[in-house]
Amino acid sequence: MDTARLPVRLAPAGGTGGAAPTLVLIAHGSRDARHAATVEALAAQLRALRPSVETATAYLDHCAPRIPQVVGRLDGAPAVAVPLLLGRAFHAKSDIPAALRAAGAAALPLADVLGPSPLLLDALDRRLAEAGLDVSSPAVRARTGVVLAAAGSSDRAANATTRRTAAAWQRSRGWGAVEVAYASAAPPQVPDAIALLRSADIDQVAVAPYLLAPGLLPDRIAAAATAAEADVIAEPLGATPEIARLVLARYDRARQATAVAA
User: Fold this and answer.
1) Which DSSP state fits 24?
2) Domain co-membership, 211 together with 247
3) Number of domains within the chain
4) 5 pLDDT more than 60
């Protein structure tokens, strides 16, 4: 069971009442300024939710500060890195561990990726509601087809996890149908998924980006959804309360696992 929805009671570091490890939020980075702004907004939420935990942000590419800079500022102090990634694809399996090794921080505790989690489904619901869809109505949900529009990956396991997320979302919310689409790397694309939903017995089609921050791929999804005349187009997940709670849950789990191992 994913316990991220449950209240978190943080044990003292090492069981001795010491300061909590720094939470290092690792994002991919983008040339689009909205990406870093979203990450920083999420970091601000984390600080507000858990003021006792110092939070730092680090980026793999394009943005500053990069991982070596943040690791250097830690100066050996305890920390836990949380990847701001939805699934375990190349960035999670290779890029971030390699960047930590190159920065001399191979031993830094690394939390799991954010997905899958019920909190991600809650965040998707929130964004659809903000876009004007009455997600609280079972009747509306039953007559709505949703495109879960993800980035896409060459990693088949990562894409399979996205499909399982779509199935869980449909099952738990009672959507008329949920189809997965990808912005890159794998078919089907957003117009294909919308066309498939239009052929079903539903009243409207909504597109929900399964991405964390604005940028090239979310813009591509929105443009394709608009061209295909989707009825509702949501924003990326972004700095929602659900994502902030999920980041803290991943931090706590990694921290507790480290304490047990020690």
Assistant:
1) E
2) no
3) 2
4) no
- Reply yes or no on whether the pLDDT at 157 is more than 70: yes
Burial of 68 (0-12, 13-18, 19+ CB in 10 A): middle
Question: Which secondary-structure segment (H or E) carries 224?
Answer: helix 216-227
Residue 8 has what DSSP assignment? Answer: P
Residues 198 and 176 in one domain: yes
How many whole angstroms separate alpha carbon 219 and alpha carbon 2? 31
Question: Within this chain, do residues 56 and 138 fall inside the same structural domain, yes or no?
Answer: no
Average pLDDT over residues 228-234: 98
Direct distance between the N- and C-terminal alpha carbons of the chain, in angstroms, rounded to an integer: 25
Helix, strand, or coil here: 57?
Answer: strand
Report, as an integer, the average pLDDT of 102-128. Answer: 97
3-state DSSP call for residue 119?
A: helix
For the entire predicted model, the pTM comes to 0.91
Q: Which residues contact 1 (CB under 8 A, 6 or more apart)?
A: none
> What span, in angstroms and rounded, lies between the C-alpha atoms of 95 and 148?
25
Structural domain including 136 reads 132-233
